[in-house]
Amino acid sequence: MYTLFYLAHTTGSTVMRALPWEFPNDPSLAAADRQFLLGPAVMVTPVLEPGATTVDGVFPGIGKGECWYDWYTQAAVNATMGQNTTIDAPLGHIPVYIRGGNIIPTQEPAMTTREARKNPWGVLAALNLEGSASGSLYVDDGESVTPNATLYIEFTATNSTLHASGRGTYIDTNPLANITILGVHSPVTKVSFNGMQIASACVEYDGARKVLSITGLRNSTMAGAWSKDWKLRWG
């Protein structure tokens, strides 16, 4: 979200978006006023009726090259093009989905923003149907009106390789804790980080959900997750 606000400030882009903003060529979305996007990557389908335990929602672009993943299960959504899908939404559950083709940096929450900024980083890559994705992260001290130092990281994933490249002078010393890749359709037997193979105990592939989870990256990023460029390869 911090990156979205930075981009809104510097480029005039929007943070909270109506579905037609991202899918202007789909006239059926003109009436979709009960769902919204956070940036291009995250779609929220809130429950707006009291006592309801389900909600209807559409998944833009399904059948036309787009794919969506459930935020909680991380599995691909099974939906029909141009039709409402009934979504389970028990009390306390807000349906949230990730658009394929996007990479989202994450940090574990804490009681305050100051404490949360000290937590290790994670990366969530949701591959599109072609197996690629991209994203970005903006970091500064979080306090200064005009920061003296900033850091901007760009992420790309293609051909079973995830690459992170940063530019800027702000120093963030939080390590990288984990990487999760959604939409990996082939079994994974080995993973390397900057050419060093990751121990099998730190690699988990869920064939049912098509999710690859990698942990044990802290020792490789003790100087900071973005202190230098890195590549993660799997196959």
Write the layout of secondary structure elements.
Layout lengths: L1 H10 L4 E2 L1 H4 L13 E3 L3 E3 L9 E4 L10 E3 L14 E4 L7 E4 L2 E6 L5 H4 L4 E6 L6 E7 L11 E8 L2 E8 L7 E7 L8 E3 L2 E2 L5 E4 L4 E4 L15 E5 L1
Parallel strand pairs: 9-13
Antiparallel strand pairs: 1-2, 2-3, 3-7, 4-6, 5-7, 8-9, 10-11, 11-12, 12-18, 13-17, 14-15, 14-18, 16-17
Please explain how this structure is put together.
Strands 10-11-12-18-14-15 form a six-stranded antiparallel beta sheet. The chain is built from three helices and 18 strands. 8% of the residues lie in helices and 35% in strands. The model has no long low-confidence stretch (mean pLDDT 95). It is globular. It has helices spanning 2-11, 19-22, 113-116; strands spanning 16-17, 36-38, 42-44, 54-57, 68-70, 85-88, 96-99, 102-107, 121-126, 133-139, 151-158, 161-168, 176-182, 191-193, 196-197, 203-206, 211-214, 230-234.
